[in-house]
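F.,

This is the one I mentioned.
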């Protein structure tokens, strides 16, 4: 069932691993189709070579239609975000090194350093720490992501959203690149960023 959706989720997960945006056992990817079915990577799957057979199908009511597969511990986090964001159809959660460095330090990633970062990410949210896989983490993520498309998860990793898997993946890659630039700027003692006028222009770009 739903072969195309499951193939695309698996492809995105492999791409995250290939781009060094997560570890072989870390992170998860999901998408939601127009009928409300959700497709998410299974727990304990090798992210370097995952294929559609390791992608779970959840009914619009949240029932596991692939009972031989164990749901990711973060499944409720994905479902809670989808519930709070009807405009979102894809979620990427991973542990890229620089974004995770800021997550461990509980320091904000400033997106207002380049036009691309600001346009793609908007304000990067910060999700407070809760135990991985817990209902508290799911609730905290849904709350922050109700007004953000990218966020750092304290002592954990990063999460990005999109209307498509490509958009969610793209945002994760831009988030990691932006965190890397933030790190470099701090290393050389530079605080350069876009002006308030430039930020306003980017935030309103394409709205008129």
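My design for it:
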């Amino acid at each position: 069932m739903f072969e195309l959706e499951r193939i695309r989720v698996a492809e995105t997960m492999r791409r995250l691993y290939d781009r060094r945006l997560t570890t072989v056992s870390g992170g998860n990817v999901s998408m939601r189709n127009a009928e409300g079915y959700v497709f998410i990577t299974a727990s304990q799957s090798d992210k370097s070579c995952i294929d559609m057979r390791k992608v779970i199908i959840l009914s619009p009511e949240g029932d596991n239609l692939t009972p031989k597969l164990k749901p990711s511990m973060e499944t409720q986090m994905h479902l809670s975000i989808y519930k709070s964001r009807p405009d979102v159809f894809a979620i990427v959660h991973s542990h890229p090194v620089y974004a995770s460095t800021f997550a461990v330090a509980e320091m904000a990633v400033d997106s207002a350093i380049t036009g691309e970062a600001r346009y793609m990410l908007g304000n990067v949210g910060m999700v407070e720490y809760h135990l991985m896989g817990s209902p508290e983490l799911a609730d905290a993520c849904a709350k922050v992501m109700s007004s953000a498309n990218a966020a750092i998860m304290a002592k954990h990793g990063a999460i990005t959203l999109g209307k498509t898997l490509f958009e969610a993946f793209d945002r994760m890659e831009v988030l990691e690149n932006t965190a890397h630039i933030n790190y470099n700027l701090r290393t050389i003692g530079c605080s350069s960023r876009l002006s308030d006028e430039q930020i306003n222009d980017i935030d309103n770009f394409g709205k008129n």
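The chain is about 40% helix and 15% strand.

Talk soon.
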